[in-house]
Design brief:
Layout (H helix, E strand, L loop, with lengths): L2 H5 L2 E5 L5 E5 L8 E5 L2 E3 L1 H7 L12 E3 L5 E3 L11 E2 L5 E6 L2 E6 L10 E2 L13 H4 L25 H10 L5 H4 L3
Parallel strand pairs: 7-10
Antiparallel strand pairs: 1-2, 3-9, 4-6, 5-6, 8-9
């Protein structure tokens, strides 16, 4: 074991959740910045290009969205952070700070405990059917929602007046209006 490995607060090993996981090598205090999620910084278009041929039923990637322009592909130049699994009852969270991603302890973590954060994968209007199964969760938490996807946005009840205002506000403008006349 190298001197560097001895000071790291985590180890990568086989996980009961999925594949490899990251485990606390010693107790980790709440609010500790454990590791930075690193890899090649690419555009969303490049991420789509790289994984275009991938089976749609395979959810396994090392991509982390930073913002509207940037994705970190930890499959290229990544570190152990890419092996931190999802949990619906996480002990860590991903924190964005100056366009960098850090994994931070949400609570005290015991030595030997697997590190996990909620991936919080957002749903899109054009999501294919069966996406919940593709992104199925195996965390085993009592509060497990069964998927790594965030719950669908709650639909709010609108009064008839609110609905009418919304319809007026979202009507397409006439072609003359779009040209600025």
């Amino acid at each position: 074991m190298t001197e560097r490995e001895e000071v790291l607060p985590y180890r990568v090993r086989r996980s009961r959740i999925h594949g490899a996981g990251v485990f606390a090598a010693r107790p980790i205090a709440r609010a500790t910045r454990i590791i930075e999620y690193v890899g090649e910084r690419i555009s969303h278009a490049e991420a789509d290009r790289r994984y275009a041929g991938k089976d749609a039923r395979d959810n396994h990637t090392f991509l982390f969205t930073v913002d509207a322009r940037t994705v970190i592909d930890a499959g290229v130049g990544g570190n152990a952070a890419r092996f931190i699994n999802h949990s619906c009852a996480p002990n860590c969270e991903a924190v964005l700070e100056r366009r960098r991603v850090f994994i931070v302890a949400l609570r005290d973590i015991a030595a030997g405990e697997e590190l996990a954060y909620d991936y919080g994968i957002e749903r899109e209007a054009d999501d294919p059917p069966g996406l919940e199964e593709i992104f199925g969760c195996r965390c085993g938490a009592a509060s497990c929602r069964g998927t790594m996807l965030l719950p669908p946005p709650a639909r709010t009840q609108r009064s008839p007046a609110q609905a009418a205002r919304r319809r007026r506000a979202t009507r397409p403008r006439a072609a003359a209006d779009r040209r600025g006349r």
